[in-house]
Amino acid sequence: MKKQVIKLLATVTFGLVGGFTVSQVNSQAAYKTVSIKKVTKAAYHKASNSGAFYNQAHTKKIVNLKTHPYTTYYVTKEAVMKNGSKKAVFYYAKSASGIGGWVWNKYLTKGKSPFGLKYAKSYLAMDAKTGEVLASHNGNTQRLVASTGKLMTIYLAVQKAEKENAWNKTVSVAGSGLRSMGLSSAVGGFQFKTGHKYTVKQLYDAALIESSNNAAIALGRWVSGSNAKFIKKMNAQAAAWGLSSKTKFVSASGLENDDLSPYGYWASGSYTAGNEVSAKDLATIARKLINDYPDVLKQSKLTSMKTDGQTLTNANRLLKGKTYYSSDLNVDGLKTGYTPRAGLCLVATSQKAGKHRLITVVLNDQNEFTETNSLMKHVYKTADVYK
């Protein structure tokens, strides 16, 4: 009886298919390599979220397959291994970046992995000229979008500034809430100094480049007369463009109401509500902005600038001179965003010489810059319009 218990404790089972137990084993004797041979190199990807790579003796787990959901592995060896009285075929496989080891053959399926992003809950790529969706995952699902929602505010502010030739017009920034917001390390970024006057252009630069929340709210008040009226205008514009009826704006800045409430700018929706927009609708807003007012790209590509003695810093690290810039993609905008509930969000755009402009959106991400690069490269490689 004791011998049986010891034998059971030596093996922790995590898979049983076709009568063969695939286990993490604490004793090399549990797994024996019966035969091994080289095979013609071939591409495989995970068959499900089950399984893991191990060393040949199965004494050490290297990595779970589910942690790299869209990775292609290349099989170069095949072995028959014995566990007790059962035999099964195992593959030795590694990705181009060196991830891999020995894995039961049932956990892989032949062929290169389909494209996908590891972290983003939603993503979408759109042809800026035609509006064609070139790649999408949960692209029609409404999500909190943080400061990427400022693109609607910027569109409506630019629309009025252009129509009325009002770029140099002074905008009221009265109110302790806007001043306090600018001093906050959590929601600030641009300080409204007592006695200073700010133009539409200055507030536009602060909202677009620095992602200043108080500047966005001040622009909204200027456009519609009050914060509440501006939010209604945002929703009316969304409806006029035919965006989803589920897309809702409650904030000119992209902050959620619990962040806005202490400053007096909770205007509609529940205490924790925020702008909820799908990746497709956000790409559509960006497309409208770029096509109707292309000069916005002259500002959105700036990594920094000074206004009213303050340095505005662009958080988009895909821009030229920044950490994740790729000369092959040449990203020249558009808008970053983050709140704890929305996660990392990014609307980006680039254009290859002689080709249509590309717009990408990633929402609720953990690595928005790397994943945007991956999405853009995939679309440029596979979409017919770019071939």
Automatic annotation (TrEMBL):
Matches recorded under InterPro entries: Beta-lactam/transpept-like, Peptidase_S11, Peptidase_S11_N
Residue numbers binding substrate: K335
Keyword Signal among record annotations: yes
Keywords assigned by UniProt, alphabetized: Carboxypeptidase, Cell shape, Cell wall biogenesis/degradation, Hydrolase, Peptidoglycan synthesis, Protease, Signal
Active site: S147, K150, S211
Molecular function GO labels: serine-type D-Ala-D-Ala carboxypeptidase activity
Domain of life, per lineage: Bacteria
Domain Peptidase S11 D-alanyl-D-alanine carboxypeptidase A N-terminal: 120-366
Gene3D superfamilies with a match to the protein in the record: DD-peptidase/beta-lactamase superfamily (3.40.710.10)
GO biological process terms, semicolon-separated: cell wall organization; peptidoglycan biosynthetic process; proteolysis; regulation of cell shape
Protein family per UniProt: Belongs to the peptidase S11 family.
UniProt name for this protein: D-alanyl-D-alanine carboxypeptidase
Lineage of origin: Bacteria, Bacillati, Bacillota, Bacilli, Lactobacillales
